[in-house]
Every structure is written in C-alpha cells, then in structure tokens.
Amino acid sequence: MARFAGKSVIITGGNSGIGLATAKMFAAEGAQVAITGRSQEKLSTAKAEIGGDVLGKSVDMTSVEAIGSFVEDVAAKYGKIDIVVAAAGGAVVRPFEMMDEALFDEDLDRNFKGAYFTAQKALPHVRDGGSFVFLGSAAGSKGFAAMTVYGPSKAALRGLVRSLATELSPKGIRANVVSPGPIPTPGMDRLGLPPEQIEGVKQEFVRQVPLARMGTVEDIANAITFLASDQAAYITGTELAVDGGHAQV
Ligand SMILES: NC(=O)c1ccc[n+]([C@@H]2O[C@H](COP(=O)([O-])OP(=O)(O)OC[C@H]3O[C@@H](n4cnc5c(N)ncnc54)[C@H](OP(=O)(O)O)[C@@H]3O)[C@@H](O)[C@H]2O)c1
User: Of the candidates 132, 170, 217, 221, which lies 20 to 30 Å from 188 by C-alpha distance?
Assistant: First the structure.
C-alpha cells in the first residue's frame, strides 16, 4: 500500500532541487501534490516531471498575501490538507560588513517568514493528525562565514518546530525540521558566487563532511517523507540532520 494514498501535500519550492525531488517521491507514493516556486517555466517543467494532476503556482514566499491565496487554491482543489513541506528558501553569501537592510530582510523573509506563514495559513485546512516538515540547514547549528542571516533564519525554524509541536499537539499535528548538509541543487549554484568559486566551495564541503561526499536530493526527500509518514507518528518537535555528519561532529 502506497504510504501517501489519498493524502494531499503542499510543497513550497517544489519546482526545483530538494522540493522537486520530494514532490516526486510523494506523488510516486500516491499523494496529490501542490507545489510553488517563483519561475513559471520551472513550475511547468516540474509539473510535467511529477506527473498527474499537480497544482502549481508561482508564489512569492515573502508575501503573506500570496501565500494565503495559494493555500486557498489548494483547499479549493483538494479539500483538507494532510502534509505541508516548507522547502522554499536559499542562501546568499555576503560578508557581515556588507549586509544591507534590504538583503537582510529578503534572506530572513524567504527562509523564515515564508515558512512560518505557510504553516499558519495552511493550518485551518490541515486535517487533525497532519504533519508539518520544514527545511532547516546544517547552517542552523554550524557557523559558516558570510551566512549571518541564512544560518540564524534556519535556526529560527528549529525553534519554531519546538513551539508548534507543543501548540498543535492537541490536534495530533506534528512539526519537525529536516536539516540538509551540502546538496548539489540549482540553489547551490545561486549563492551569489562566481562559478569557479562554487566549485571550490563544493570541494571544501566534501573535505569537511565525515561521509566524504555531498548528499543527494533523494537523501533529503527520504527523510522528509519519513517524517511526514505514519512511521514517524511518535516524532514531533525534532530536527533530523541529513548532512553526512557535517554539523554533528
Ligand atoms: N542544497 C543545499 O545544500 C541545502 C542545504 C541546506 C538546506 N537547504 C535548504 O533546502 C531548501 C531547498 O533548497 P534547494 O537546494 O533545493 O534550492 P533550489 O533548487 O534553489 O530550490 C529553492 C526553491 O525555493 C524557491 N524560492 C526561493 N526563494 C523564493 C522566494 N523568495 N519566493 C518564492 N520561492 C522562492 C525557488 O523557486 P525558483 O527556483 O522558481 O526561484 C525554488 O523552488 C531551501 O530551504 C534551502 O535553504 C539546501
């Protein structure tokens, strides 16, 4: 029996990288999925790759109004929502002294505010016993130079699931965070660094990670789908690091 037959799942950032791999995994195991992204073109390609009747919408995750409108579209199409995966986000590399207010707000809003309000807007439609999974990062618990907003924004998600797990437990709704280590995705190529430096960053990651490789998007999707599934029925408020040991040793 498919683990997610009859379930409806929101995956923000589902048109790319980790979110897309996760959407494919949920759909392959029977779920109806709804995805967001920014690029309409990538949304169309992702919908075709996922297959079936996917709801895909371009949503600016820094706009609470846009997030609310997307959630209403999902509820109108699928009714109750079972699982919400907040995967939209990404890092920008910028030295502390060069961080300006506009970039600070953008980085924090994309990674924390967007995920926060995705959960809040979805909650009235989430079935009792449902599940929230947020995308944290090794950078939420390990220091990285020039990631002074991204890292704390992911640490904030770690804090958020502690509160949500407590507050939503009367409804049987669970909240957890999956924290990836380095995963080659389009996002890694959008760190704001020239291509030759990106290659150096990747090599340095492999050198630092105890398992001596970068992870795959499937490594992360496996953890997300596990936490969203009934196999994780007694797990809430926790962080599952999927980082080859990067931030654990
Ligand atoms: N890859 C890694 O090494 C790594 C490590 C730790 C944590 N993570 C986290 O994993 C998640 C997925 O990242 P990824 O590596 O899969 O990157 P990705 O391929 O770039 O995917 C990021 C997704 O978020 C969307 N997005 C970004 N900013 C947005 C905004 N302001 N409004 C709406 N949508 C926005 C992107 O939409 P468009 O593509 O249409 O712009 C895309 O769908 C992120 O939360 C990231 O922080 C990644």
Answer: 132
Which atom of ligand 1 lies closest to the CA of 180? 6
pLDDT band at 192 (very low <50, low <70, confident <90, very high): confident
Instruction: List, for residues 94-121, the tens digit of each pLDDT value.
Output: 999 999 999 999 999 999 999 999 999 9
Distance CA 210, CA 74 (A): 41
56 C-beta closer than 6 A to ligand 1: no
- The residues assigned a catalytic role are 150
CB of 60 shorter than 6 A to ligand 1: yes
Question: How many alpha carbons lie under 13 Å from residue 122 in its C-beta half-sphere?
Answer: 32
pTM of model > 0.90 = yes
Distance (Å) from CA 122 to ligand 1 centroid: 20
